Structure prediction request, 677 residues.
Amino acid sequence: MGKPGFERAHHVAFFDAMATELPGDYDKQEVNHLTLSYFALGGLSLLRELDRVNKDEIARWVLSFQVHPEAHTDVDSGLFYGFCGSRSTQFPLSNVKDPCHNGSHLASTYSALAILKIVGYDLANVDSKALLQSMKKLQQPDGSFMPIHIGAETDLRFVYCAAAICSMLDDWTGMDKLKAKEYILNCQSYDGGFGMVPGSESHGGGTFCAVAALHLMGFIQVDLASNLNDSASIDMRMLLEWCLQRQVNDGGFQGRRNKASDTCYAFWVGGVLKIIGAYHLIDRCALREFLLTCQSPYGGFTKFPFDRIPDIYHSYYGLAALSLLEEEGLEPLSVELGILSSAL
Amino acid sequence: MDHANSGPSSWPELADVVPVPQDDGPSPVVPIAYRDGFREVMDYFRALYFAGEQSPRALRLTTEAIEQNPGNYTVWHFRRRILEALDSDLLEEMNFVEKIAECNPKNYQIWHHKRWLAEKLGPDIANKEHGFTMKILATDTKNYHAWSHRQWVLQALGGWETELQYCNKLLEEDIFNNSAWNQRFFVITRSPLFGGLKVMHDAEVDYTIEAILGNPQNESPWRYLKGLYKGENNCLVADERISGVCLKVLKNDWTCVFALSLLLDLLRDGLQPSDELKAILEPVRSSDPETADADLAITVCCILQKCDPLRVNYWSWFKTTLSQISDPLVVSG
Prediction:
């Protein structure tokens, strides 16, 4: 059996099918409908196959999830005027007696704006004033963000979402950057990686959120040498070592020490290395071979090598990781925002 | 079939409720192929939610909706309002959420609900909470949600007394369990019972060295050991136990990447290598013309380039940083 190649046609078929209709198994993730759509459409965009969908229709659909304040509403009341993640979390204002009904969520808002960027919608047309002003209320005294005003876990994921939202809208009034930075620094663990919250175990996803947010906020440079000299008071040397140690013998990246490698961390950890200017230090050939063994025979990617059934999350991050490796036939990605470079 | 028949449309208590269908808005993009049961429950939920009805039947409906869609934070939020309005038994609710969590141990909303309950129930619940996370961790020792919850309970409600013992037990079962090493660091640095890292430092260094010697290929204790010095590289270099453990490991296996890498850090930060250490690396050094005349740090880099091929670019790069900074050190040494 020869080494597998990049099965572009299979992936196009897979993402096309996903963009047409997500299978019923995804109904447990229905609240993240916008994020699932971001994966499907982001995958098509990386494959340069976005012509298969109707971009105007997509933009209209995404915009229909935004919650707008009513004429005389106090935007500083604590409610967040972002995007709801799905229809089942969206409730028309006039119908609800619960004053807290608004279900807009930071992750969904990030996904909404990312999709709009991907389909070429001009974000200057998005009503961003109420969005940003109310988003600032989600920031906690320790600098972290709550994803939704009715209360939920706070961790690095939402600091990243807030930073990406401000960056995409090109307006940083939505957050206190110094506070956010302080929180991020508190999440760097004794081993150089970042945990999702202060004290927790270093984790590929948490580390991505930390470093990408610092970069978006302007606290990280693009080249490794400058970062090692002046690195926003994070321990850059240990971070570099932590990231590089995550590449394991099968060529893939693990998300945490002593765990199996997994498709998505080729993006999360590889993305951190890209951001800090150290991507050239990994073994690219070994990583590519690993990723190719994670391709499903049905198109898309699986979490682990030689599995069969793909899922949309690992499929998107498999492609994104191959885009970082400059695989032929894939669009370059702006890693810190998770959208095509050409969409910026 | 049975499933459809047992949905809310068949509940006598909801006979007077008119379900509110989902408004799909403009032509749906990337639609999800919902199962019938899912839509039905959400249509009834919407009706009671719009009406703001905080009643036992609304509570029961949220149970059904949560079973269909445990990620729907609006449903959980509405449930919390109902629990408050009905002044429900929160311990009973805790049992409910635990049953759901056991089937969905990686769902954020469930753990958040659990935290909300624990916060209301206060310190008395701490040990019960620790018992529950222990149960989840018994089947998946690395469940991130369970560890986060456990750390939150420790800090907010207490129960530190047996935590170090618990870490010991997990590490005895699997010394490669990095989550347990992380928890150990958390306990050592944050438990109010121990007086912090300064007090615990010496004993921890010994514990960690023992773990390294038992399994030199286990990265976790090597990183933990460095973490105990919290970036105070002078102390790391000055503590003879550190260069000692590198020496011991390299004596048996001069290709051990973690020992070489720690040794490299020590050399970079000014360690004067002992004759014994030089002797171990001497045969490697003299056999390779590239390293024959080089200082020991460069030699170690060259060995790492060979023993750790996945990171050959990193060690090559590392070597260039050494030649940039090591000159003044050589002079001062």
Remarks:
- The two ends of chain B are 82 Å apart (CA to CA).
